[in-house]
Amino acid sequence: MAILLRLLIVLCCVAASAAAQVGDEAVRAIWGSADSYKTDETDLTKAHYTFEESGSSSDVLVNWSNGMMVFKGIARSEDLMDEEGLKMEARDYAYVKAREFLNGVIVGREDEIEKRGLRQVAGGSFDEKNAIMNKWKISISVPPELVRTGPILSETFRQEEHPAKRNSSIAISEVSIALLLYNKEHPNEGILARMLPTLRDEYKKIGIKQAERPPEGAVQALKATEPELATHTGLVVDTRGYFMRPVASPQVFIEGQEGRQVYGVLAVDPKYVSQIGIAGWAKSPETVSADRVGSKPLLVKACGTMGSASGTVLLKPVDAARVMAADTIRPFLQECRVVFVVD
């Protein structure tokens, strides 16, 4: 069996007999201490988000470099529910929040991004208005059955002294589940590639189309004025200043032609999406990984966004033409050789 699945099974078995700390240990076994997600605002490969509601909360740990995610649901009760009942509540909460989160970062659903106060702990806000999805009314969702495939890493139950009532206790259950957006070692398990057909159908339905390639004469003219276009190995989009945040399905549109997609779900090959995702993320052009975009990527500057939470940016028409010309000469977009530089 695959290494990851063996690891998850071991973690689940350990969780069944271990103490309350197992939930954190299960997370650390894959990503390291959760504290690193809260304190390191320079490392975009990992991110820590949290949901907070009365009586319940949920932590989301995402490793954007390999598509691995952990969702931890926490349920609390003053009525001292039975252990199994409270674990079930925490488990259901983790799956519900996983689906809401995925509807935000994959589909770009504004209602799910803002629902119940989703916020990003490190690296800025995740609750901006999603103008592009307001305009085109994207309404699809990640199917519950895709989320429910996530295995349980750990389940814990404990009782603590009530923080406000003397001689009273509160019961707490924590359940951690794991999901994959994409992964080189387990490409068939990723949710993102399985959502591509649905996303593409929805885009076509509401009028979003792939931008037309410049004609051969225009490509040759651009190549004559900028010979380097024939040598680029990938694309780096500098979005600094627009407060863009990592998402699973970023998009690039042409300014003034917002329904024409230069890069996004319409341009990619599912084979590459299932392994490395649609795009990588970096804090500066100097820190972009050559493993992702090759040794000579084309660098372009975004001229705006259509909702930074949606991961949708705009390019000037001249830069969009340069990107498509370079990709026509030496294709790299369908292989997801793209990185976004963010604040």
Largest sheet report: 6 strands, antiparallel
Order of helices and strands: HHHEEEHHEHHEEHEHEEEHEHEEEHE
On the 0 to 100 scale, the average pLDDT is 77
Please provide the count of β strands: 15
Shape: elongated
Distance between the termini: 40 Å
Q: How many domains would you count in the coordinates?
A: 2
How many separate helices? 12
Structural class: alpha/beta
Folded structure, characterized:
The chain has 343 residues and is of the alpha/beta class. It folds into 2 domains: 3-180, no CATH class; 205-341, no CATH class. The protein is built from 12 helices and 15 strands. The protein has helices spanning 3-17, 22-31, 35-39, 83-107, 110-114, 131-136, 144-147, 191-206, 216-225, 270-276, 290-293, 317-329; strands spanning 46-53, 56-63, 68-77, 119-120, 152-161, 169-180, 209-210, 235-238, 251-254, 257-263, 280-282, 298-301, 304-305, 312-315, 338-341. The strands form 3 sheets. Strands 4-1-2-3-6-5 form a 6-stranded antiparallel sheet. Strand 5 and strand 6 form a beta hairpin. Helix 8 (191-206) packs across helix 10 (270-276) and helix 9 (216-225) crosses helix 12. The longest helix is centred in the N-terminal third of the chain and has 25 residues, at 83-107. It is elongated and about 80 Å long.
Quick overview:
The chain is an alpha/beta fold and 343 residues long. It is 35% helix and 24% strand. The protein has 2 domains: 3-180, no CATH class; 205-341, no CATH class.
Topology:
Layout: H1 3-17, H2 22-31, H3 35-39, E1 46-53, E2 56-63, E3 68-77, H4 83-107, H5 110-114, E4 119-120, H6 131-136, H7 144-147, E5 152-161, E6 169-180, H8 191-206, E7 209-210, H9 216-225, E8 235-238, E9 251-254, E10 257-263, H10 270-276, E11 280-282, H11 290-293, E12 298-301, E13 304-305, E14 312-315, H12 317-329, E15 338-341
Parallel strand pairs: 7-10, 8-12, 8-15, 9-14, 11-15
Antiparallel strand pairs: 1-2, 1-4, 2-3, 3-6, 5-6, 9-10, 13-14
